[in-house]
Structures are given as C-alpha cells and as structure tokens.
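Customer escalation, tier 2.

The customer says the design service returned an amino acid string that "doesn't look like it belongs to this structure." They asked us to rerun it and document both sides in this ticket. The original structure tokens are below, unchanged.
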C-alpha cells in the first residue's frame, strides 16, 4: 500500500494533539462498524475474508456495558500479526488501539501520546486496508 500525505485526511496532518487523536478514535470506530457491524452484534470470534489477502481474525476479549475489547490479527503460517488490541467505547462511539506498553506514569497523562498516536495511526491505516480488501469482489486482483 502506497501511503502519501495526499491520502491522509487533512486533520491528521496537523500537530499531534489530543483533539486530533480523539478524531482518529472516532474514525476508527466508524471503520470498525463498517467492517464488523454494531458492537452489540459482534460474535466472540469471527473471521473476515479479504480478497487475495489473509483473513482478518477478530476475537472478543472483553465485553462490558460501555466497552468492547477486541483482538485483531492476521495469521501467517503459525504466526499472528499484528495482534492489536482495540477498545470500543460504545457510548462515546470511539475506538482506541491500546499500545503494547501500558506503562502508567502518574502525573504525566500525555507521556504516552506518541505511543498512542502510532498505535492508532496503525489501526486507522489497517482498517482502511481491510475495508478496501473486503469490498473487492471475489476473483478480482488485489
């Protein structure tokens, strides 16, 4: 996939602020709903075929009144990549990719901003890839 600044929404090119990150959470939620349907109906495990590409594996890791935790991955010869955990906030209609490192740094709420930005930009682009692949008719080249 060729990524250029022309393919990114203009607001994602602004400085990495909490406001822009929250906008990315909103877009990620919308894309997940397009791909999986509304959170209430997501089964515990699901595989989504992608035209000419490895299936997307979705596993529900936790479900509560307001949140749904998912593990998203592709499987390649016994290896799962990228194994991204995503938390959907159903009431706020936001989806946050949870960074691998969940270090808590008291008194420094924005210390993990770069890590959050990277994880959620990965989710943003990955969901774009999955939606494009899921939309391609069977038998068409990728």
């Amino acid at each position: 996939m060729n990524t250029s600044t022309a393919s990114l929404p203009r607001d994602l090119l602004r400085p990495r602020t909490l406001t822009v990150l929250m906008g990315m959470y909103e877009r990620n939620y919308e894309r997940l709903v397009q791909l999986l349907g509304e959170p209430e109906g997501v089964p515990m495990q699901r595989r989504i075929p992608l035209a000419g590409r490895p299936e997307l594996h979705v596993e529900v890791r936790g479900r509560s009144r307001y949140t749904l935790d998912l593990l998203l991955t592709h499987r390649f010869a016994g290896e799962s990549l990228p194994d991204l955990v995503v938390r959907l906030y159903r009431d706020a209609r936001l989806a946050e990719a949870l960074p691998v490192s969940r270090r808590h740094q008291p008194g420094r709420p924005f210390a993990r901003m770069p890590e959050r930005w990277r994880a959620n930009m990965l989710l943003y682009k990955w969901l774009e890839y999955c939606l494009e692949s899921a939309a391609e008719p069977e038998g068409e080249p990728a």
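Tier 2 assessment: The sequence is consistent with the input. Helices lie at 18-36, 113-135. The chain is about 30% helix and 30% strand. Sent an explanation to the customer and offered a walkthrough call.
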